[in-house]
Amino acid sequence: MSGRSTGPTRVSARTIQIALGVIWLFDGLLQLQPKMFGPDFANQVILPTAQGQPDLVSSTITHMAHLIALQPTLTNTVFAAVQILIGVGLLIRETVRPALVLSFVWALGVWALGEGFGMLFTGMASPLTGAPGGALLYVVIGLLVWPRRTRTVATPVVAGPATAEGPLGARGGKALWAIVWVGMGILWLLPANRAGGMISGAISGAVTGEPGWLAHVQLSVAHAFGNGGGSAAIACAVLSFVIGLGPLVSRQTTVFLVAGAALALDYWVFGEAFGQLFSGIGTDPNSGPLLVLLALALYPNSAAAASVPDPGTTRTASGAASSVALSIGT
To answer: pTM for the full model?
Structure first.
């Protein structure tokens, strides 16, 4: 029998794996929405990411969209099945490794052909709308919590964040956090993102297909920015740099993680429209929730839960020790 855990509950690598599995399952279920089995998936989800791309990227994405449009039911069923398979695999401890490998391959494919490489090659990629791409964050989080070894009852609990249990360790997790957030800060400084009316236009553009209450909130925020937004973009860039580099230079990691999660949720609500989950063509929750999950993976657990053997295990061990002692004595 397994031991009991006492002490504070910690966010472990297994916790993050399960959360990631739930998100993959949710993605698979979103793929089963009625609109996904028709032309909308190819025309409204895939094709728009070809706009503004270099010729090679644009033609590849366009060709993929046309292939999907030829057999939308078959291709969409396959897409849903793969994502559900990944999700189930992550929920079962014994299949985490192959599920993560499959998720890496699939997520990178989605990032390239479904998200247009996060629109990074267009010069208009904005963290407000999900750049550098939610699919890329699946890979980052999965890599950080890759199981290095099989845990047993005798395996000591690792102190520190969930990333301490992964191959890159706690420092590696902070480094990837910095790369993600500093990268988003750089994106905020792109001329397109500092242009007047950019923030307002991005928020207004996310209104299409959303319910009235959400559209009203988004349009109100967009109206507040008006034709400005350049100073707000610079402020978001500076804040992103602070959030990203903070955990590397300060022991007060939590404040930067909380700030990052809060800013990510702001993006998720106003710029990503909850990943367009209410539109009928949302394929995933977008980057907001994944940035929150990344923050949780880096959360500095104050203390590891102590492992206490079960009474039955203790009695068995004590009995065995007594038998050995008697054998030696005789």
So the answer is: 0.87
